[in-house]
């Protein structure tokens, strides 16, 4: 997900480009302002933490771009592309290492496990909105 700060800063194309250059496929993509209900479900594991309210307020403050990304080791690769949650600890070359300064406004979100990815995908997308490349033949690609 490109969070509201990344959208506001015009970084959606940069984030998508890094994902695609790494070799992952974006199989679903949506820009919208996440509802409070969806945000609470998305960040449910943080519900009892002191920063939960500010997290919900931020993620619902403006448009974000949610994505479903597939490929070999997609969860681990996305976490690597994004970099450490705290940009001060994120490697140069990662999205957060190159583009973010603050933990609370760190441009992107990625699921931390395949189980979390499934849960988050189910919150943000209907199955019918996710492209299944394995069912498409090669003729859909134009030169």
Question: Explain this structure to me?
Answer:
The protein is of the alpha+beta class. The protein has one domain (4-124): Nucleoside diphosphate kinase-like domain (Alpha-Beta Plaits, 2-Layer Sandwich), CATH 3.30.70.141. Helix content is 39%, strand content 10%. It is built from seven helices and two strands; from the N terminus they run ααβααβααα. Strands 1-2 form a two-stranded antiparallel sheet. The radius of gyration is 15 Å and the shape is globular. The two termini are 29 Å apart.
Following the backbone from N to C, one meets helices and strands in this order, namely: HHEHHEHHH
Q: What helical percentage do the residues reach?
A: 25-40%
Q: The CATH topology is what? A: Alpha-Beta Plaits
Classify the beta-strand content into a percent band: 5-15%
| The CATH H-level homologous superfamily | Nucleoside diphosphate kinase-like domain
Output the structural class: alpha+beta
Tags for this model:
143 residues; alpha+beta; Alpha-Beta Plaits; two-stranded antiparallel sheet; 2 strands; globular
What would a concise description of this structure say?
With 143 residues, the chain is α+β, with helices and mostly antiparallel strands. The protein has helices spanning 4-8, 12-22, 36-42, 52-59, 74-82, 95-99, 114-124; strands spanning 25-32, 64-70. It has a two-stranded antiparallel sheet with strand order 1-2.
């Amino acid at each position: 997900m490109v969070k509201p700060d990344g959208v506001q800063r015009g970084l959606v194309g940069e984030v998508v480009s890094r994902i695609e250059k790494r070799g992952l496929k974006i199989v679903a993509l949506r820009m919208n302002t996440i509802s409070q209900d969806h945000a609470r479900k998305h960040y449910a594991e943080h519900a009892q933490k002191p920063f939960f309210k500010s997290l919900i307020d931020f993620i619902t403050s403006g448009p974000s771009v949610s994505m479903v990304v597939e490929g070999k080791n997609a969860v681990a690769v996305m976490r690597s592309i994004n970099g450490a949650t705290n940009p001060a600890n994120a490697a140069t070359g990662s999205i957060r290492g190159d583009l973010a300064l603050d933990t609370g406004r760190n441009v992107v979100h990625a699921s931390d496990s395949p189980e979390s990815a499934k849960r988050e995908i189910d919150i943000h997308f209907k199955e019918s909105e996710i492209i299944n490349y394995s069912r498409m033949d090669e003729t859909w690609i134009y030169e």
